[in-house]
Amino acid sequence: MSRSPNELNAVDKHIRASGRVRCGGRKSLAGSKKGALSFSLSAHSTFYKKSGKKKVGSESDCPPVLRVSSRRSGRTPALPYPPPESVHYITEEMNAEKVQNPLYYCGIDLHSDNNVLGVIDSSGNRLSIKRNANDLEAVKKALRPFAANLEGIVVESTYNWYWLVDGLREEGHKVHLANPAANEQYSGLKHGDDETDTWWLAELLRLKLLKEGYVYPRSERAVRDLLRKRAQLVRMRTQNILSIQNLTCRNTGGRLSGNQVKQLTVEAVKECYKEETERALAVTCSVNVIKVLEKQIETIEKKIKSKIKLSQPYQLLNTISGIGDILAMVIMLEAGDISRFPSVGNFSSYCRCVKSVRLSNNKKKGNGNRKNGNKYLAWAFMEAANYAIRWEPIIAKFYQRKSSKKGSVVARKAIAHKLARATYHVLRDQTPFDVERCFGC
Fold first, then answer.
1. Containing domain of residue 139, as a range?
2. What number is the average pLDDT over the span 174-187?
3. pTM here?
Protein backbone atom coordinates (compact mmCIF):
# COMPACT_ATOMS: atom_id res chain seq x y z
CA MET A 1 0.00 0.00 0.00
CA SER A 2 1.48 3.35 -0.98
CA ARG A 3 1.57 6.19 1.50
CA SER A 4 1.64 9.91 0.95
CA PRO A 5 4.60 12.03 2.14
CA ASN A 6 2.41 13.61 4.81
CA GLU A 7 1.59 10.22 6.27
CA LEU A 8 5.25 9.18 6.21
CA ASN A 9 6.26 12.40 7.96
CA ALA A 10 3.64 11.81 10.66
CA VAL A 11 4.90 8.26 11.21
CA ASP A 12 8.49 9.51 11.26
CA LYS A 13 7.59 12.00 13.97
CA HIS A 14 6.13 9.28 16.20
CA ILE A 15 9.13 7.00 15.69
CA ARG A 16 11.57 9.70 16.77
CA ALA A 17 9.38 10.66 19.75
CA SER A 18 9.44 7.07 21.05
CA GLY A 19 13.18 7.39 21.68
CA ARG A 20 13.96 3.90 20.43
CA VAL A 21 15.07 4.65 16.87
CA ARG A 22 18.29 6.42 15.90
CA CYS A 23 18.18 10.08 14.99
CA GLY A 24 18.86 9.18 11.36
CA GLY A 25 15.40 7.69 11.07
CA ARG A 26 14.03 10.68 9.16
CA LYS A 27 16.65 10.37 6.46
CA SER A 28 16.05 6.67 5.99
CA LEU A 29 12.28 7.09 6.02
CA ALA A 30 12.34 9.93 3.51
CA GLY A 31 14.05 7.69 0.97
CA SER A 32 12.27 4.48 1.83
CA LYS A 33 10.46 2.56 -0.85
CA LYS A 34 6.86 1.56 -0.89
CA GLY A 35 5.96 -0.88 1.81
CA ALA A 36 9.14 -0.10 3.76
CA LEU A 37 7.07 0.35 6.91
CA SER A 38 4.50 -1.97 8.36
CA PHE A 39 2.10 -1.23 11.17
CA SER A 40 0.38 -3.53 13.62
CA LEU A 41 -1.36 -3.35 16.96
CA SER A 42 -0.52 -6.07 19.43
CA ALA A 43 -0.74 -6.49 23.18
CA HIS A 44 2.22 -8.85 23.27
CA SER A 45 3.08 -9.25 19.53
CA THR A 46 1.38 -12.67 19.56
CA PHE A 47 1.20 -14.55 16.24
CA TYR A 48 -0.21 -18.02 15.64
CA LYS A 49 1.59 -19.94 12.92
CA LYS A 50 -0.98 -22.75 12.70
CA SER A 51 -3.74 -20.58 11.31
CA GLY A 52 -1.37 -18.45 9.25
CA LYS A 53 -3.21 -15.34 10.42
CA LYS A 54 -2.13 -12.54 12.68
CA LYS A 55 -4.18 -12.25 15.86
CA VAL A 56 -4.19 -8.80 17.33
CA GLY A 57 -4.00 -8.59 21.14
CA SER A 58 -4.40 -11.46 23.58
CA GLU A 59 -7.02 -12.94 25.83
CA SER A 60 -6.00 -10.66 28.69
CA ASP A 61 -7.74 -7.39 29.41
CA CYS A 62 -4.63 -5.26 28.95
CA PRO A 63 -5.04 -2.69 26.18
CA PRO A 64 -3.22 -3.19 22.87
CA VAL A 65 0.11 -1.43 22.34
CA LEU A 66 0.95 0.32 19.10
CA ARG A 67 3.97 -1.22 17.33
CA VAL A 68 5.86 0.43 14.46
CA SER A 69 8.24 -1.95 12.68
CA SER A 70 11.04 -0.80 10.38
CA ARG A 71 12.87 -2.97 7.81
CA ARG A 72 16.09 -1.14 8.43
CA SER A 73 16.26 -1.42 12.23
CA GLY A 74 14.14 -4.51 12.69
CA ARG A 75 12.86 -3.05 15.95
CA THR A 76 9.27 -2.67 17.06
CA PRO A 77 9.23 0.22 19.49
CA ALA A 78 5.99 0.82 21.36
CA LEU A 79 4.35 4.23 21.22
CA PRO A 80 3.24 5.20 24.73
CA TYR A 81 0.28 7.24 23.47
CA PRO A 82 -2.69 6.73 21.12
CA PRO A 83 -1.98 7.00 17.35
CA PRO A 84 -3.13 10.10 15.45
CA GLU A 85 -6.22 9.91 13.31
CA SER A 86 -4.31 10.92 10.16
CA VAL A 87 -2.58 7.53 9.80
CA HIS A 88 -4.34 4.20 9.27
CA TYR A 89 -3.69 1.60 11.98
CA ILE A 90 -5.00 -1.87 12.66
CA THR A 91 -7.18 -1.60 15.76
CA GLU A 92 -8.70 -4.30 17.93
CA GLU A 93 -12.46 -4.62 17.78
CA MET A 94 -14.27 -3.87 21.01
CA ASN A 95 -15.61 -6.83 22.95
CA ALA A 96 -19.39 -6.88 22.66
CA GLU A 97 -19.81 -7.85 26.30
CA LYS A 98 -17.63 -4.95 27.45
CA VAL A 99 -19.63 -2.52 25.32
CA GLN A 100 -22.91 -3.69 26.83
CA ASN A 101 -21.64 -3.92 30.44
CA PRO A 102 -18.79 -1.41 30.89
CA LEU A 103 -17.12 -1.02 34.26
CA TYR A 104 -16.52 2.39 35.77
CA TYR A 105 -14.12 3.54 38.48
CA CYS A 106 -14.59 6.75 40.43
CA GLY A 107 -12.12 8.90 42.34
CA ILE A 108 -13.09 11.74 44.69
CA ASP A 109 -10.59 14.35 45.85
CA LEU A 110 -12.22 15.69 49.02
CA HIS A 111 -11.66 19.18 50.44
CA SER A 112 -13.13 21.17 53.30
CA ASP A 113 -15.93 22.80 51.29
CA ASN A 114 -15.95 20.99 47.91
CA ASN A 115 -14.86 17.83 46.13
CA VAL A 116 -13.69 16.87 42.65
CA LEU A 117 -15.30 13.72 41.23
CA GLY A 118 -13.86 11.88 38.22
CA VAL A 119 -14.94 8.68 36.46
CA ILE A 120 -12.91 6.42 34.14
CA ASP A 121 -13.76 3.16 32.37
CA SER A 122 -11.99 -0.20 32.47
CA SER A 123 -9.59 0.93 29.71
CA GLY A 124 -8.54 4.06 31.58
CA ASN A 125 -10.50 6.49 29.39
CA ARG A 126 -11.54 9.60 31.26
CA LEU A 127 -15.28 10.03 31.03
CA SER A 128 -16.36 12.70 33.49
CA ILE A 129 -14.85 15.28 35.84
CA LYS A 130 -16.83 17.70 37.99
CA ARG A 131 -16.33 19.86 41.07
CA ASN A 132 -19.22 19.59 43.53
CA ALA A 133 -20.15 21.22 46.78
CA ASN A 134 -19.83 19.04 49.87
CA ASP A 135 -23.42 17.90 49.63
CA LEU A 136 -24.35 14.22 49.48
CA GLU A 137 -27.20 14.76 47.03
CA ALA A 138 -24.89 16.62 44.63
CA VAL A 139 -22.42 13.71 44.71
CA LYS A 140 -25.19 11.18 44.12
CA LYS A 141 -26.42 13.19 41.15
CA ALA A 142 -22.95 13.22 39.59
CA LEU A 143 -22.66 9.43 40.03
CA ARG A 144 -26.15 8.59 38.77
CA PRO A 145 -25.23 8.05 35.06
CA PHE A 146 -22.57 5.48 36.05
CA ALA A 147 -24.20 3.94 39.14
CA ALA A 148 -25.36 0.72 37.45
CA ASN A 149 -21.85 -0.43 36.47
CA LEU A 150 -19.77 1.40 39.06
CA GLU A 151 -17.06 -0.99 40.24
CA GLY A 152 -15.87 1.16 43.14
CA ILE A 153 -15.35 4.65 44.55
CA VAL A 154 -12.13 5.94 46.07
CA VAL A 155 -12.31 8.74 48.65
CA GLU A 156 -9.16 10.39 49.90
CA SER A 157 -8.77 10.03 53.66
CA THR A 158 -9.10 13.58 54.95
CA TYR A 159 -10.39 14.83 58.29
CA ASN A 160 -13.98 15.12 57.00
CA TRP A 161 -14.65 11.84 55.16
CA TYR A 162 -17.28 10.41 57.55
CA TRP A 163 -20.37 11.90 55.90
CA LEU A 164 -19.31 11.00 52.36
CA VAL A 165 -18.23 7.40 52.97
CA ASP A 166 -21.23 6.61 55.16
CA GLY A 167 -23.69 8.20 52.72
CA LEU A 168 -22.30 6.39 49.66
CA ARG A 169 -22.25 3.06 51.47
CA GLU A 170 -25.90 3.50 52.42
CA GLU A 171 -26.63 3.86 48.70
CA GLY A 172 -25.02 0.46 48.09
CA HIS A 173 -21.74 1.66 46.56
CA LYS A 174 -18.44 -0.05 47.27
CA VAL A 175 -16.32 2.70 48.83
CA HIS A 176 -12.55 2.56 49.40
CA LEU A 177 -10.69 4.93 51.72
CA ALA A 178 -7.32 5.85 50.21
CA ASN A 179 -4.31 6.16 52.49
CA PRO A 180 -2.57 9.43 51.49
CA ALA A 181 0.74 8.44 53.08
CA ALA A 182 0.93 5.19 51.08
CA ASN A 183 -0.43 6.45 47.74
CA GLU A 184 2.06 9.17 46.92
CA GLN A 185 2.27 10.35 43.32
CA TYR A 186 5.47 10.57 41.30
CA SER A 187 7.47 13.38 42.92
CA GLY A 188 8.79 14.62 39.56
CA LEU A 189 5.39 15.69 38.25
CA LYS A 190 5.63 19.07 36.60
CA HIS A 191 2.01 20.06 37.16
CA GLY A 192 -0.52 18.71 39.60
CA ASP A 193 -3.95 19.89 40.68
CA ASP A 194 -7.23 18.53 42.00
CA GLU A 195 -8.13 16.93 38.67
CA THR A 196 -4.86 15.00 38.38
CA ASP A 197 -5.28 13.81 41.97
CA THR A 198 -8.78 12.59 41.15
CA TRP A 199 -7.65 10.69 38.04
CA TRP A 200 -4.76 9.23 40.02
CA LEU A 201 -7.09 7.78 42.68
CA ALA A 202 -9.41 6.25 40.08
CA GLU A 203 -6.47 4.80 38.14
CA LEU A 204 -5.03 3.17 41.27
CA LEU A 205 -8.37 1.46 41.88
CA ARG A 206 -8.59 0.28 38.28
CA LEU A 207 -5.08 -1.19 38.37
CA LYS A 208 -5.70 -2.75 41.82
CA LEU A 209 -2.74 -0.82 43.28
CA LEU A 210 -4.69 1.22 45.83
CA LYS A 211 -3.38 1.25 49.41
CA GLU A 212 -6.47 1.53 51.58
CA GLY A 213 -7.09 2.94 55.02
CA TYR A 214 -9.29 1.37 57.67
CA VAL A 215 -12.92 2.46 57.74
CA TYR A 216 -13.84 2.35 61.41
CA PRO A 217 -17.33 0.87 62.00
CA ARG A 218 -19.93 3.58 62.14
CA SER A 219 -21.67 2.09 65.19
CA GLU A 220 -18.49 2.37 67.33
CA ARG A 221 -17.10 5.56 65.86
CA ALA A 222 -19.14 7.90 68.08
CA VAL A 223 -17.88 6.24 71.28
CA ARG A 224 -14.26 6.49 70.10
CA ASP A 225 -14.67 10.17 69.21
CA LEU A 226 -16.25 10.81 72.61
CA LEU A 227 -13.18 9.32 74.28
CA ARG A 228 -10.99 11.60 72.17
CA LYS A 229 -13.05 14.55 73.41
CA ARG A 230 -12.25 13.45 76.97
CA ALA A 231 -8.53 13.55 76.12
CA GLN A 232 -8.96 17.10 74.82
CA LEU A 233 -10.68 18.20 78.04
CA VAL A 234 -7.93 16.57 80.14
CA ARG A 235 -5.31 18.56 78.24
CA MET A 236 -7.24 21.76 78.87
CA ARG A 237 -7.45 20.96 82.58
CA THR A 238 -3.70 20.31 82.70
CA GLN A 239 -3.02 23.67 81.03
CA ASN A 240 -4.99 25.49 83.72
CA ILE A 241 -3.27 23.54 86.51
CA LEU A 242 0.14 24.48 85.10
CA SER A 243 -0.99 28.10 84.82
CA ILE A 244 -1.82 28.25 88.55
CA GLN A 245 1.46 26.55 89.46
CA ASN A 246 3.50 29.02 87.38
CA LEU A 247 1.66 32.03 88.76
CA THR A 248 2.19 30.84 92.34
CA CYS A 249 5.87 30.10 91.78
CA ARG A 250 6.55 33.52 90.21
CA ASN A 251 4.85 35.52 92.94
CA THR A 252 5.55 33.54 96.13
CA GLY A 253 8.50 31.29 95.31
CA GLY A 254 6.51 28.32 96.56
CA ARG A 255 5.24 25.32 94.63
CA LEU A 256 1.84 23.67 94.55
CA SER A 257 1.39 20.06 93.48
CA GLY A 258 -1.26 19.02 90.99
CA ASN A 259 -3.50 17.55 93.70
CA GLN A 260 -3.23 20.74 95.77
CA VAL A 261 -4.31 22.82 92.78
CA LYS A 262 -7.31 20.53 92.19
CA GLN A 263 -8.42 21.02 95.81
CA LEU A 264 -8.28 24.83 95.68
CA THR A 265 -11.51 26.74 96.27
CA VAL A 266 -12.49 30.29 95.45
CA GLU A 267 -12.50 31.22 99.16
CA ALA A 268 -8.99 29.85 99.63
CA VAL A 269 -7.71 31.84 96.67
CA LYS A 270 -9.21 35.09 98.00
CA GLU A 271 -7.69 34.43 101.40
CA CYS A 272 -4.26 33.84 99.88
CA TYR A 273 -4.35 36.98 97.66
CA LYS A 274 -6.07 39.51 99.91
CA GLU A 275 -4.20 42.57 98.67
CA GLU A 276 -3.68 41.43 95.07
CA THR A 277 -7.15 41.30 93.57
CA GLU A 278 -5.89 41.02 90.01
CA ARG A 279 -3.85 37.88 90.71
CA ALA A 280 -6.70 36.48 92.77
CA LEU A 281 -9.03 36.93 89.80
CA ALA A 282 -6.61 35.14 87.44
CA VAL A 283 -6.29 32.15 89.77
CA THR A 284 -10.04 32.11 90.44
CA CYS A 285 -10.80 31.91 86.73
CA SER A 286 -8.48 28.92 86.32
CA VAL A 287 -9.98 27.19 89.37
CA ASN A 288 -13.52 27.63 88.03
CA VAL A 289 -12.48 26.27 84.62
CA ILE A 290 -10.85 23.23 86.25
CA LYS A 291 -14.04 22.46 88.21
CA VAL A 292 -16.19 22.66 85.08
CA LEU A 293 -13.79 20.47 83.07
CA GLU A 294 -13.66 17.84 85.83
CA LYS A 295 -17.43 17.61 85.82
CA GLN A 296 -17.56 17.14 82.04
CA ILE A 297 -14.74 14.56 82.12
CA GLU A 298 -16.60 12.57 84.76
CA THR A 299 -19.79 12.64 82.66
CA ILE A 300 -17.97 11.34 79.58
CA GLU A 301 -16.27 8.54 81.54
CA LYS A 302 -19.59 7.31 82.92
CA LYS A 303 -21.13 7.25 79.46
CA ILE A 304 -18.25 5.32 77.89
CA LYS A 305 -18.00 2.80 80.73
CA SER A 306 -21.69 2.01 80.41
CA LYS A 307 -21.08 1.09 76.77
CA ILE A 308 -17.99 -1.10 77.00
CA LYS A 309 -17.48 -2.16 80.64
CA LEU A 310 -18.81 -5.70 80.14
CA SER A 311 -17.03 -6.40 76.86
CA GLN A 312 -14.44 -9.19 76.89
CA PRO A 313 -11.59 -7.20 75.24
CA TYR A 314 -11.96 -4.53 77.92
CA GLN A 315 -11.68 -7.06 80.72
CA LEU A 316 -8.64 -8.74 79.12
CA LEU A 317 -6.84 -5.41 78.70
CA ASN A 318 -7.24 -4.71 82.41
CA THR A 319 -5.04 -7.73 83.15
CA ILE A 320 -2.02 -6.07 81.47
CA SER A 321 0.45 -4.36 83.81
CA GLY A 322 0.16 -0.58 83.73
CA ILE A 323 -3.21 -0.53 81.96
CA GLY A 324 -6.23 0.65 83.93
CA ASP A 325 -9.80 1.55 83.05
CA ILE A 326 -9.06 4.65 80.96
CA LEU A 327 -6.10 3.20 79.06
CA ALA A 328 -8.04 -0.01 78.41
CA MET A 329 -10.84 2.02 76.84
CA VAL A 330 -8.39 4.02 74.72
CA ILE A 331 -6.56 0.94 73.43
CA MET A 332 -9.71 -1.05 72.71
CA LEU A 333 -11.48 1.74 70.85
CA GLU A 334 -8.45 2.97 68.92
CA ALA A 335 -7.23 -0.47 67.86
CA GLY A 336 -10.65 -1.62 66.66
CA ASP A 337 -10.80 -5.11 65.18
CA ILE A 338 -7.41 -6.67 65.96
CA SER A 339 -7.74 -9.09 63.02
CA ARG A 340 -7.15 -6.21 60.60
CA PHE A 341 -3.44 -6.37 61.53
CA PRO A 342 -1.75 -9.31 59.74
CA SER A 343 1.01 -9.64 62.33
CA VAL A 344 2.16 -8.30 65.67
CA GLY A 345 4.77 -6.17 63.89
CA ASN A 346 2.06 -4.33 61.97
CA PHE A 347 0.23 -3.52 65.20
CA SER A 348 3.44 -2.31 66.89
CA SER A 349 4.17 -0.09 63.91
CA TYR A 350 0.63 1.32 64.05
CA CYS A 351 1.28 2.18 67.72
CA ARG A 352 4.48 4.06 66.76
CA CYS A 353 6.59 1.66 68.79
CA VAL A 354 9.11 0.69 66.11
CA LYS A 355 12.15 2.48 64.74
CA SER A 356 11.73 4.54 61.59
CA VAL A 357 14.99 4.55 59.64
CA ARG A 358 16.22 4.10 56.07
CA LEU A 359 19.28 1.92 55.55
CA SER A 360 21.41 1.26 52.49
CA ASN A 361 24.38 -1.11 52.63
CA ASN A 362 23.93 -1.19 56.42
CA LYS A 363 24.35 2.58 56.58
CA LYS A 364 21.75 5.05 57.78
CA LYS A 365 20.56 7.26 54.92
CA GLY A 366 17.69 9.03 56.63
CA ASN A 367 14.49 8.63 58.63
CA GLY A 368 11.08 7.47 57.52
CA ASN A 369 7.69 8.82 58.51
CA ARG A 370 7.96 8.65 62.30
CA LYS A 371 4.43 9.98 62.80
CA ASN A 372 2.82 7.32 60.62
CA GLY A 373 0.45 5.57 63.01
CA ASN A 374 -2.06 6.25 65.75
CA LYS A 375 -0.96 8.98 68.16
CA TYR A 376 -3.56 7.98 70.75
CA LEU A 377 -2.20 4.43 70.96
CA ALA A 378 1.36 5.77 71.13
CA TRP A 379 0.37 7.93 74.11
CA ALA A 380 -1.56 5.09 75.79
CA PHE A 381 1.33 2.61 75.74
CA MET A 382 3.84 5.18 76.97
CA GLU A 383 1.51 5.96 79.87
CA ALA A 384 1.14 2.24 80.54
CA ALA A 385 4.93 1.86 80.53
CA ASN A 386 5.33 4.63 83.14
CA TYR A 387 2.74 3.04 85.45
CA ALA A 388 4.15 -0.46 84.95
CA ILE A 389 7.65 0.69 85.94
CA ARG A 390 6.22 2.17 89.12
CA TRP A 391 4.01 -0.72 90.26
CA GLU A 392 5.32 -3.94 88.67
CA PRO A 393 8.62 -5.26 90.20
CA ILE A 394 9.56 -7.45 87.22
CA ILE A 395 9.10 -4.56 84.77
CA ALA A 396 10.98 -2.21 87.11
CA LYS A 397 13.91 -4.63 87.11
CA PHE A 398 13.83 -4.79 83.30
CA TYR A 399 13.77 -0.99 83.17
CA GLN A 400 16.81 -0.64 85.43
CA ARG A 401 18.81 -3.12 83.39
CA LYS A 402 17.84 -1.51 80.07
CA SER A 403 18.32 2.09 81.19
CA SER A 404 21.83 1.37 82.45
CA LYS A 405 22.82 0.39 78.90
CA LYS A 406 20.64 2.55 76.63
CA GLY A 407 19.26 5.35 78.79
CA SER A 408 15.87 5.99 80.35
CA VAL A 409 14.11 7.16 77.18
CA VAL A 410 15.03 4.05 75.18
CA ALA A 411 14.17 1.83 78.17
CA ARG A 412 10.68 3.30 78.52
CA LYS A 413 10.06 2.98 74.80
CA ALA A 414 11.20 -0.65 74.91
CA ILE A 415 8.68 -1.39 77.67
CA ALA A 416 5.93 0.36 75.68
CA HIS A 417 6.87 -1.80 72.67
CA LYS A 418 6.66 -4.99 74.74
CA LEU A 419 3.27 -3.97 76.15
CA ALA A 420 1.99 -3.24 72.62
CA ARG A 421 3.08 -6.68 71.40
CA ALA A 422 1.53 -8.30 74.47
CA THR A 423 -1.72 -6.43 73.83
CA TYR A 424 -1.88 -7.83 70.29
CA HIS A 425 -1.53 -11.42 71.51
CA VAL A 426 -3.97 -10.89 74.39
CA LEU A 427 -6.69 -9.55 72.07
CA ARG A 428 -6.02 -12.04 69.27
CA ASP A 429 -5.80 -15.18 71.42
CA GLN A 430 -8.31 -14.00 74.07
CA THR A 431 -5.94 -14.94 76.91
CA PRO A 432 -4.94 -12.98 80.05
CA PHE A 433 -1.59 -11.21 80.28
CA ASP A 434 1.43 -13.13 81.63
CA VAL A 435 4.10 -10.75 82.92
CA GLU A 436 6.64 -13.54 83.41
CA ARG A 437 6.38 -14.58 79.79
CA CYS A 438 6.66 -10.99 78.54
CA PHE A 439 9.42 -9.64 80.81
CA GLY A 440 10.90 -12.73 82.44
CA CYS A 441 14.71 -12.98 82.35
1. 98-206
2. 86
3. 0.72
